[in-house]
Amino acid sequence: MKIVVGLSGGVDSSVAAYLLKQQGHEVIGLFMRNWNDASVTLEDECPWIEDSNDALMVAQKLGIPFQVIDMSELYKERIVDYMFAEYEKGRTPNPDVLCNREVKFDVFMKTALSLGAEKVATGHYARVDSTIDSNGEEIFHLLAGKDNNKDQSYFLCQLSQEQLSKALFPIGDLTKPEVREIAKEQGLVTADKKDSQGLCFIGKVSLPTFLQQQLTPKEGEIVEIFDVFEAFHQEKPLFSSKLEELAFLSSKIQYRKSDGKVIGKHQGAQFYTIGQSKGLGIGGHKESCFIIQRDMENNILFVGEGKSFPGLFRKAIKIENIDVHWVREDLRLKNGESMEVMARIRYRQPLEKAKLYQFSEGLFIEFEKPQSAIAEGQFAAWYHGDELLGSGVIS
């Protein structure tokens, strides 16, 4: 089988390419150049040059063809511009999820298929399987990677059945130590290379620096909220319907400056996210203060002391119908239906017991336990067992 591997210059994609070559496939390595601006990176040299050189050396070692394709214009349009727009609105986007949906498994995949490839492989710690349903249709299943510490199925939560039908994840059954051991045994230059901490396929980029270079700083106030207002909010009314209850549980507390006390200044609410405690420059507290709300219109950050502060938590979230995505379209809920699932609202968060409720007003996820630091713009993903069923953007 002719397979294109997205070689990123890291150990995971290097081993993915090696495994496919060992299985007898015709393998082609493609490196995506997604960014040209070195001014926002954490090092003097353009990181994509180092990464592409490492990818080239891996390809040469494995004896496979190698190409670099420039996708920087597309990446800026679909990922970076979207990311800035979301931060300006006071939302918290996940560029890695978008990169997989919009770049790797869309334009990059189409490029690979145009080269005659039957499948596209990446170094994600995830698995894909398929079954045949009662109508004879092939259903593709997105499964968690076997390495619980590295499972990256969450980053693939926006993929479609069509995309999964062409996707391969060769290292999904391996652990990270096993992947590094294979790379060492084969003498691959990436064997001991550290995992990228930067944005998807850009390199070692500091997100705060990135944002500050693109968004205009504007001084605003930090207002601390105390328990009195919280206690008031916790008085739950009686509900006439489940929808009414979910609408209440998923609603944000609308703080006002008069609800608390001004304790500091910041350089722009758009540079911060819900649940953040670092970089606020707040002292004089026993515990750290956490951002519990952002008023983008008035450029105010509202904070509460301690990671157990009630204002950090919500028991339910809402996803607008337009933002609901089912990997398993055959399991999509109809209005009035519900489903028990395991769910997470961010990468590396342990899966939590929850229940989906579909209404004409939107999809709601009610968690068994209140969830901390829910931020609009994040992706919530839901699972059954180790299969990721769907996802959506938190509103």
CATH superfamily of the largest domain: HUPs
CATH topology of the largest domain: Rossmann fold
**Distance N to C terminus:** 42 Å
Helices, by number, come to 9
In helices, the fraction of residues equals 25-40%
Shape: globular
The largest β sheet comes out as: 9 strands, antiparallel
Q: Give the CATH class of the largest domain.
A: Alpha Beta
What quaternary form is this? single chain
Query: What average pLDDT do the residues reach?
Result: 90
Element pattern in H and E:
EHEHEHHEEEHEHHEHHEEEEEEEEEE
From the 3D coordinates, which CATH architecture of the largest domain would you assign? 3-Layer(aba) Sandwich
Number of domain modules: 3
Strand content: 25-35%
Secondary-structure-derived class? alpha/beta
Low-confidence stretches: none
Characteristics of this structure?
9 helices; 3 domains; alpha/beta; nine-stranded antiparallel beta sheet; Rossmann fold; five-stranded parallel beta sheet; 395 residues; Elongation Factor Tu (Ef-tu), domain 3
